[in-house]
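Hello again, I could really use a second opinion on something today. I've been staring at a protein lately and its backbone has me curious. You're getting the sequence in one-letter code plus the fold written as tokens. I'd be grateful if you could look everything over and explain what you see. No rush at all, and the record is pasted right below:
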Amino acid sequence: MASSLEEKILNVQDVTDSEAFDEVLIYLDQIQMQDEEFMEKLLARRDDMVISWELPWYQKSNCLTKKVFDNELLEEADQKEAFRTDAVSSDESNKIDNNWQKLRKLFNLPDTPICLARWKNISKSRNPRTAEECARRFVISFLAQGLERNLHQVYRHFVVRYGYHTKGHYTPYEEKIMQICLYHMPKNPVPIISLILGRDPRGIYKRLQQNDKEPLKFDRRKWTLPLSTQFLKLLMKHTGLPLKKLKNKTFDRSLWYKLQDEMQYSYINLQYHWYYTLHAQLFVKRDVKRNRLRKKIFKRLAKMPYKVWSDIRWKEMVKFYRDGFTQIFLYRQCYHVVRKTENFIRKPLSELIPIALKHIKTLQSKRLQTLILNENEELEECIYSEKDIEV
């Protein structure tokens, strides 16, 4: 069904043609019918949807789409356990998948989680006591069993995983779909585009904004010591902070825009240079061999409870290493090692780490260039003594 639409849309020469938009509406109607059919099958088993297991306090909320709790639940929370607030791990995601398989077999439902993820209660009452909302809340409660997560977290993970399944660069077909919807429904095209493409609405809004603006053009320049000195001086000027107090500091985006205007260099590149390169060069007061550091990181990862690459919490990993390293610095050191390994994102770390350690032996051994701000307030290289090698 999607492939036939793609073929038709790619052959469209004029996005203002109403027939092109008709094709989009026909496809939209088809997927909405699928979602409604799934909901009808779910409602047919409504009488059997009885919560027979004990719910923790944070899974008793009536609202799935917002992070809200009743006052009674908040009072109960003072005496009860807290729920997790970090990103959902691969183990938790697998647990949700397993619970979904149990649910569909128990209630004889089709294996189409995308239908529930896409379904919106638009034409019906938003009252949490309606049959549709009760059924949806039961499903999410069932999926949340065994997790230290509230229902909103599980619902968001379910929607993102199954409803917003398309990732990566936008294809010519997707670009044309956006152009068609934007022309024929200029007031609110994003919900339709999101349903058609299976993409997160936030990413679509950002893409439309990018398409609407003329991209900024900057000359590509190599980061030399004088250029880095200029950047550092501007950073200290606009923050009003001395060099020592810039360590581990986060800055508002408005500051990066100011630096972009003054340096005529993309603020994204400025951020990257600071957090990935300059921060470690300035604040790590040791002579660091990159390959030795990489080995230590991977060996540390082998002792951590992470199962796959996407489980790794780099903010936590920073705590095990020298003050001055940033999470993006550690991430990039390891990513450089595994990036060419097939499907490294989902490969178990127990398999990925031995591959990485073996590959490190083939990489050129380099040291981290360390810098200081000299008496003339210019950056210059500083080589620390061999006896201070420690990471």
